[in-house]
Amino acid sequence: MPTSFEKRRAEFGEYLRRLRIDAGYETGKDFARAIGWNAPKVSKIENGRQTAGDEDLETWLTAVHAPAERSAELRVRLAAIRDAYASWREKVRDGYRARQEESLSREARARRIRAVDLLIVPGLLQTAEYARHAILSHAKVHGGAQDITEAVRARMQRQQILHEPGRTIELLTAEAVFQYPIAPPEVMIAQVHRLLSIVGTPEIRFGIIPAGTLLPYPVTGGFWIVDDVVMIENAPGEHLVDDVDEVGTCHEVADLLWTIAAENDAAKTVLQRVLDNTSR
């Protein structure tokens, strides 16, 4: 089943296809020849397999003599599609601090936050050194401005909401985070102590899935539900989902995972085991 992002892109492509036909270009090949493109590019855009760039759209609109009002509408639609999925290289082009400040702003407005991160400590619970290693690892792959110190500071600022009233915050991780660490032992030990200090905090529901637990659903990546929007991160980029059904599915998966999570004293037991193993 296509995602809401894929549906939007397909609908956008179909809209462009109709404009092309209405302008007298019967085939995509004819249109490609007229604007100096290769035919596969036209086909991919029209069939929702490729997102048009700003210059692509302007070329298309000019070729079909689209009215100003319709052109403006399509520019807005394209911007919305791009917002729904942005590559990490695009996200961090202006630096990692900007990306963290974006999250800070979103979370500050939120009434409910549910994070499911099974291979990394959720950002709202990271120590500064753990966050530094996480962002540095990211920068090695995706590049971007090397404002790591400022980005870490912004990520720490995000954590202020943990102690503000009026929110529901659920943060779920897994023991696997410590079996596949992204930082040296001393950093991971400090991170365990940070999580131990959170357990039992009234404003926060914290859970950790013990190693070896049978999963009720195969989770292939982390996701955050912030009010009515889901943020799904993968290696290429970040996908924002606001389709009601898809958001509901993510809530359902989160609910299933919480059924096997250790909380309160059970969570302390898991974290103490991690601490003992890491300290050896």
Automatic annotation (TrEMBL):
Coiled coil: none annotated. Residues 104-272 form the DUF5753 domain. Gene3D superfamilies: lambda repressor-like DNA-binding domains. It comes from the Bacteria. InterPro entries: Cro/C1-type_HTH (IPR001387), DUF5753 (IPR043917), Lambda_DNA-bd_dom_sf (IPR010982). Pfam families: DUF5753 (PF19054), HTH_31 (PF13560). GO terms for molecular function: DNA binding. This is Helix-turn-helix protein. It comes from Amycolatopsis sulphurea.
